[in-house]
Specification:
Blueprint (H helix, E strand, L loop, with lengths): L1 H20 L8 H11 L12 H16 L11 E19 L5 E3 L6 E3 L6 E9 L23 E5 L6 E2 L2 E2 L5 H10 L4 E5 L27 E4 L1 H6 L8 H11 L5 E28 L8 E7 L5 E2 L3 E2 L3 H20 L6 E7 L7 H8 L8 E7 L7 E5 L5 H13 L17 H5 L4 E7 L17 H19 L6
Parallel strand pairs: 4-5, 5-8, 8-9, 11-14, 11-15, 15-17
Antiparallel strand pairs: 1-2, 1-10, 3-9, 4-10, 6-7, 10-14, 12-13, 16-17
């Protein structure tokens, strides 16, 4: 008996070694995820702003992967579903605080301040006036521009709207474009946005191209400073930014003040109202070419770079989601034929307001009624656990994913919600069942230059990818419940 066991040991060891140290082509591979994120977040792609050369390189990379995996192009040349977006390139920028005694301090782009993505151009120097939230209520009972002269001045104001209500209604605007228009209407020549200093975690200056509806102000510079930079502009003032926020929030009344400093702001931006960009769309057809589809999506764009001095890599947001989508596509393309077709989409222009996903659902190459489910991945590489939104509106889909998670490592948290979330939203609004995959505690580096590949949780990223793959494999074979 002992001799037999000894003879079996080399065979058992060989089997164990093969199982542990080799991986089938059909397995999700962490190194593939890492390589994709490294490229998409690289300086070469300069933050993947939709319409930029960097974004176009990223789109070509995805299209080449789709071709390598044998995906169909759904009638789009080179897998590109083209459409136009507003585009604004920041070529140069500087910010200086000019103090009452004539001394000055110049700040670092990307560390002390950033330009808003749709800043206008200008080379201006003027006194700074703090104007609270920079808003006027509809009934005029609240107006940050009352009793203060901003004509020919630079306005400093809180970037976000107040959390409180006035006469049982929240006041504020849907976009910074509206705030900027109001400031210009009152005579201001530029804006310095600041975060609310008394918040638990005041927002750092972030890259952003979320602009909203309205006219682009081509000659109206707009920047966002950090709180230390903003504090310099209060030198020789009788108050502070913290005190002003507290006073305004407590009394729900404006308290705008002229400061004792000037700002010198220079921005050179190249604005193009319509610039071509593209979603990248490929399909893995079902065995019998049925008219039922599963969509796997992730947005490819991020917020670009500024003045050649700083770029926003977007490793977690959302190179991680695109890497997961591509790796799932690779594995699924190597597997056995399925009952439903799978459409893979790398969306453009999510950062400016879900433009790519909205364009797709309004110009879909397939009947939206035949899309059985849409699974979206956004920020899935940083954090500590898995969040799946949409479970309350798509309970069967959610339970399927929850069961797969239980069979694996049980890394999903219990919280979910109704509706879409990010690029799942336009699909949900069209009646498609959606789930939105993200990770908990995922946004430490959101829209910052620090959103780099080395900040990702590789084990978690691989796990989310595998979870999406396992769920998709069930869905494409018609397994809704078990």
């Amino acid at each position: 008996m002992r001799t037999s066991v000894l003879l079996l040991l080399p065979v058992l060891f060989l089997l164990y070694s093969c199982n542990q140290f080799t991986s089938k082509e059909q397995d999700i591979k962490s190194e593939n995820l890492e390589n994709t994120v490294e490229y998409l977040a690289s300086p070469e792609l300069n933050g993947r702003l939709s319409g930029s050369d960097g974004y176009n390189k990223a789109a070509k990379f995805v299209a080449n992967k789709f071709k390598e995996y044998g995906l169909q192009d759904l009638g789009f040349s080179n897998y590109y579903q083209k459409f136009d977006v507003e585009y604004n390139k920041i070529n140069e920028s500087s910010l200086t605080c000019v103090k009452k005694d004539g001394s000055s301090k110049t700040y670092s782009l990307g560390e002390d301040y950033v330009c808003r993505g749709f800043s206008g151009s200008g080379d201006i120097e003027a006194p700074v006036v703090f104007c609270g939230y920079g808003i006027t209520s509809e009934n005029k009972k609240y107006n940050d521009y009352d009793d203060v002269d901003v004509d020919g001045k630079i306005v400093m104001q809180f970037k976000d709207d107040p959390r409180w209500k006035l006469d049982e209604e929240r006041i504020g605007y849907n976009s910074l474009r509206e705030k900027a228009a109001l400031a210009k209407e009152n005579g201001a020549i530029g804006i310095i946005y600041v975060s609310r200093p008394n918040d638990k975690n005041p927002q750092k200056p972030i890259g952003s191209v979320k602009y909203g509806e309205g006219e682009h102000l081509e000659n109206f510079p707009q920047i966002h400073t950090d709180l230390n930079t903003a504090a310099d502009f209060f030198e020789h003032s009788s108050t502070t930014l913290n005190a002003l926020q507290k006073q305004i929030d407590t009394n729900k009344e404006p308290h705008s003040v002229s400061l004792e400093t000037k700002a010198r702001i220079q921005v050179d931006a190249n604005y193009i109202p319509e610039k071509s960009t593209m979603n990248v769309v490929g399909m893995l057809p079902a065995k019998n070419q049925t008219d039922e589809y599963i969509v796997l999506g992730a947005h490819l764009d991020h917020v670009g770079g500024q003045a050649g001095e700083v770029y926003f890599p977007g490793a977690n947001d959302n190179a991680s989601g695109v890497a997961s989508m591509l790796e799932a596509a690779r594995v699924l393309s190597k597997g056995k034929p399925q009952k439903r077709s799978i459409i893979f989409i790398a969306f453009a222009a999510e950062e400016s307001g879900l433009e790519g996903s909205s364009y797709f659902v309004n110009h879909s190459p397939v009947d939206l009624d035949n899309i059985h489910a849409m699974l979206n991945m956004d920020c899935v590489g940083h954090g500590d656990s898995v969040v799946v939104g949409g479970g309350k509106s798509a309970p069967d889909l959610y339970e399927l994913v929850k069961k797969e998670d239980t069979l694996m490592k049980s890394m999903m948290i219990d919280r979910t919600w109704r509706g879409g979330g990010a690029d799942a939203t336009p699909f949900f609004e069209k009646g498609v069942s959606t789930l939105y995959f993200a990770t908990k505690n995922s946004y430490k580096h959101l829209h910052l230059p620090s959103d780099k590949p080395q900040t990702l949780n590789k084990e978690l990223h691989t796990y989310v990818t595998d979870l999406v793959f396992q769920a998709t494999e069930k869905l494409v074979n018609g397994v809704e419940k078990e």
